Amino acid sequence: MFSIFKRDPIKKLTKAYEAKLEQAMHAQRNGDIRSYGSITAEAEAINDQIKALKSVKDLQ
Known about the structure:
By secondary structure, the protein is an all-alpha fold. Helix content is 80%, strand content 0%. The longest helix has 27 residues, at 33-59.
């Protein structure tokens, strides 16, 4: 009944994913390749969560 008030978790994760990619880009430009690698790994983990949620949503 109140599902219209629920936030979309995919949208939230997409914003977090884009923010991580931007953060990784800045780390790479500053020459901090180690941080770039770890931030990129975090972004890919978020992307995997997005894909999992989308596949569940498609099944419904």
